[in-house]
Amino acid sequence: MTIVMPFRGTVKGLQSVFNKKESSGVSADSKYKTDEGKRSGTAPSKPSGTLKKNYVQSIGGNPDFKLSYLKFQVPKHIEVMHTQKLINVCDKAEGNSFYRSTQMQICSLNATISRGKERRNSAQSETVVPPPGKIEFQSVTTDSVILSWGVPKGLKGPKIFRVMWSKGGWSNARKLEAVPSPRHPTAKVHLDATAVSLKRSQGKEMQAIRTEEYSDLEPETEYITNVKSSEPNTVVPPPGKITFSSVDINSLVLSWELPKGLKGPKNFIVKWTKGEWIHGRELEGYSVVKDAHQFEINDLELGQRYIFSVATDKDGNLSEWVENFVFTAVPAPRLLTKTHSEASAVTLKWTKGENMEGIKHQFIITLKSPGKERVAIQTKECFKTISNLEPGTEYTIEVSTMLIDRCSEPVSTTILTEACFRKVLSKMGLEDYYDDKLTLSTVLEINQIDTSESKLESPKSYPEAFLRKLMMLNANARSVKCVSKDVDTDKQNTINPLDLITALFLCSDGFLQQDMVVKMALCQFAVPLLMPNHDTREITMMLWAMREIVRTFSPSKLAFRNLSCEERIVLTDIPLLSFVRLGRTSLSKSQVLNKLLSNTKECYDIFYNRNMEGGDVPRKISEGLVEMTWYLPCGKKNTDKFTEPLAVANLRGDIRDFDKQFSFLCQTSAAVYIFCDESEMDYFKDLEGMVVEARLLLISSIQGKSFTLKTMTIKPSLKTTTVSQRKNTESELVKALQESVPKMLGNCPVKVSLANLADTARRCDILVDEDIDECQGVRKNADNIIQHIANTSMFKEKQLPSQGHIWKQLSLLETEYWRLRNAGNENIEDYRKSLKITEKDLKTHQQRLEIRAAMLRFFHGVASEVQRYYFLKWLEMDLDNLSRNELSDLKDRYKELREKCPEDTEKIAEIDQKISARSLRLEHFFRECGQLFQCANHLPEFSSQRKTLEQLPELCAQMLLDGFPLELVDGDAANIPLKWITEVLRELHKSMHSKSKLKVITIIGAENSGKSTLLNTMFGVRFAVSKGTCTRGAFIHLINVNEHVRRKLECDCIMIIDTEGLKPNQIVQDDHSDERDIEVASLAVALSDATIVSVSSDNSKEKDLLEMVLHAFTRLKNVGKKPLCHFVDTNMSESPAVERKKRGKELVKQLNEVIRKDTRMRKAKITKCSDVMEFDRDTFSWYMPPVWNGTPPMAPFSVDYSETAHALKKRLIGDLKKCQGRGDLMQFISDVDRFWKGL
């Protein structure tokens, strides 16, 4: 291709630029487009490798011009005579293509040049050179163009022009300096070569000196040309420093400071190349930037060094070039996850960075840990197992892509190597309990903590401290910390409470786990749903552990009627919301959940979080734990955040590390909320094959500074939709979630019960705790009993006949035998003989009753020592579920009458009888055992049935040791089955190896005053408490005394007796059942060493209650008992010690006033309360705060109540030290018989 240019006038420089980029054109600028060519040779091609040089000598004479150019930094010169008409430049070197970076210059010579010496026209003239005129294209073909331009105005004499042209930017520029023509300057450029012909207007060509040919330009391609004067240049100020505000893998944004002192519109020339500025190397790009000093460049190669030059362009004059270089980014690896972790090794995997397929590269892995030097590892694979790590150490692991000598930004993750599991247990003093599990009876033992002040001195004391507080329902149980003056020692001793809880669950048997979960739920602690075991690598769903949770709440359908329901949580269909995180987030997910789930006026720490004591300590064995809690409405609009119940699960750790847990939650939840950073979004591309039933919602952030709620779908393709505006604070995010949850549940009302999720867990390769043989083997026995119960009253009459009408009649005859209330004028001996005859007939009838099918199944269930406890728990829970369904309305009615119409005692008593008749609990089966045992001696001595019945006391004694309560006084018959109780306690004495010295603590007091709740809180026991019901009769619990404090207390165990509440102003009944409560209270006081008297906060009944209490104590004068006594006011607000002391004095005064007015007491020569009880005037009166810290069911158990109960417990233990030692269980049996008959 050739360009022919006519010349007119003398110009020292001429530049023509052909640029593929479109331009609007300026003075002396023009653009053209080549014709489409179809003939061969028009397509671009690389230079050939042949060497072609053609030198033609000048036609004599001295040279008038010198043509100079650089080839690969080597200067070249050609001398040109004025008479020469054609300069043809051609130079092809094998393998090189220098034309794109070749610079040429033509200088006028005004002296003879010989032997290499020359003299130039001064090139440093400061004269302003006028530019050429407008460029015009005379001819454009497929391979050439002819352009011309106007002669500069006002410039006389010879003129030289520089022509430059390029395709695709300045990087391809070629230059020619031409001799002048007398008229129009013209040039013909062959587009397939660099051959340049210079013609005069006459059309006569000069002799060619040198020829060089290339094929380069393309058809149908637009080029830009520019012609300007080149010398002398106006001094143009250069741009300021070049900076790079954004650098990506294939694009960047550069900017530069504006030139100083230059006003008006500013244009800049930007050029760049890859690698180094080497002469002859092709430019990557060239561009003109108008009125801006920022430029974005795309389509760069990743991981390459680019040099950028910027010059100011002022009216065609260029400033000096300003340079800077930058490396384009190397794509970072993606989806870095931990696939396996052990105590000393971890396996990681990741995927290649974007656009890295087919590019040879490696990866650099860097390990960092506190106090250690960085370690770098190189690999070519997208996975790596790193060994020789330290157990229980937190490592930050970074992976970078390495391309030749450049590395990408690292992608990082933080992992905690699994501390040697047994080592962690050993640190907490639990190593012996991993195989031989902790039991409830061990935890409830009376030990040094109960008898003296103690401080936490090492992590080995954490488990006991936590369990002690938890058993007493102290909501501060998780805040355990050693007392140490040494800061370093204190740090070493710190354990994350979640690790402590995990360790305790893994070291406890199934029944202690149940008790822990129940109490954690009452404290509003999240409870474990999926428990990881880093020793066996197994995950277990804690279904059995949660089966005992029963909660009362008021959903919208009941709230408007001011009603509530009591439900066993694992059987209740509730929508499940799960909250997980991807990567690390600046926001505490657990703290957000706490604020979301706490009621309007209260905020509770349901989920332990980093802002709590020890919450910032790295977790070692609890990563992968899934905790669960429930939001349960109370039915009050100004309190409830949500009107319907919902379950909430929280996964501890990164979902990339816990595939099973995340998969389980995605299949079982109504919605899964995922906390993540925008930079982590690539992870979700790998979820397309996962089973996802839940709606996915993202809580995405940008470097943790703001948050946006989005919905996400992964099928058929990944898609996100923003559903909330960006939130800048945690409070704004909580509010957005509070609005999101009801909408989401309204659109997707998926409800599930935990019991039904077990199958999903098994499919996800997650164990279920109740799948063990000893648990499932006896479940059928319990189910076989329950499935035959259609009507509880009828069932008791048909299947449990021995405790029914006959037993109640026998109880009345026994009472009448001693009290002789109906003897009238009849001879006492004859009357008692008649009673004995009637009693014998009733017993004969009772003995003839056959053992029914339900009891045979019961015997079968309790026969196995291994399975007994599971059977009893299954039966207890199933019976409770059954009774709850039948008694719910009656209990609501009973509660309503007691609150609104307490004076309607007749109606209250009627409903109470109905509740009693329809109730069916575990104690009814043991009552039947007692009655059958008392009739066993009529059976043949060696019969199998007799043998079975004679084993029942031993089984019941073991039940007492396992933590079940034993009914001492039958609340329905108002009697004690003495033979049965005697044998049970005798077997208990044997089981304790005759070490059964005991002391007794009893509670009596007002009905529904929280007596059972107080005992449960103080001692961690499980006396029955339920909505709308009260204890009937008396029950006992046995607590072991640790061998280290037995000598101080002078006993081996402590017996706790819970009694039926005293009910003033009862209606007199023909069967004298109205006296049952006072008789039971009198017996309990007679058997006790220390007595708690619970006084209701209802002042209207206080006088009547105190009178009943004093009567109970008065009856003991004849048996020589005078127990220590503490009075407890329930549901009282906190009051100062002075106020409590004043209350104590008033109480003594009231008691003495009751005695003074009571005739029976005066006859018994009782003049003051100290005649029947012992007490410390300064400490015997206690105020119990309200049980709940807020509004149930979302309120936690009150810490004040728990701590007051603990203080009372320690006082009682101190009192027992002062009490005179009494006998063992055998002596207690004798006392029961003696006191009951005496009463």
Mean pLDDT: 80
Number of strands: 48
Number of helices: 33
Q: In what order do the strands lie side by side in the largest sheet?
A: 40-39-38-37-34-36-35-30-31-41
Question: Please, what is the oligomeric state?
Answer: single chain
Shape: elongated
Tally of individual domains: 5
Largest sheet: 10 strands, mixed
Distance between the termini: 131 Å
| Rg (CA only) | 49 Å
- Low-confidence regions: 1-63, 69-74, 82-126, 177-184, 190-217, 221-233
State the secondary-structure class: alpha+beta
In short:
Helices cover 29% and strands 23% of the residues. The chain contains 33 helices and 48 strands. The longest helix is centred in the last third of the chain and has 33 residues, at 868-900.
General description of the model:
The protein folds into 5 domains: 2-228, no CATH class; 242-327, Immunoglobulins (Immunoglobulin-like), CATH 2.60.40.10; 334-416, Immunoglobulins (Immunoglobulin-like, Sandwich), CATH 2.60.40; 523-768, no CATH class; 995-1239, Rossmann fold. 29% of the residues lie in helices and 23% in strands. Strand 4 (65-71) and strand 5 (74-80) form a beta hairpin. Helix 15 crosses helix 20 and helix 28 (1076-1087) packs across helix 29. The longest helix is centred in the last third of the chain and has 33 residues, at 868-900.
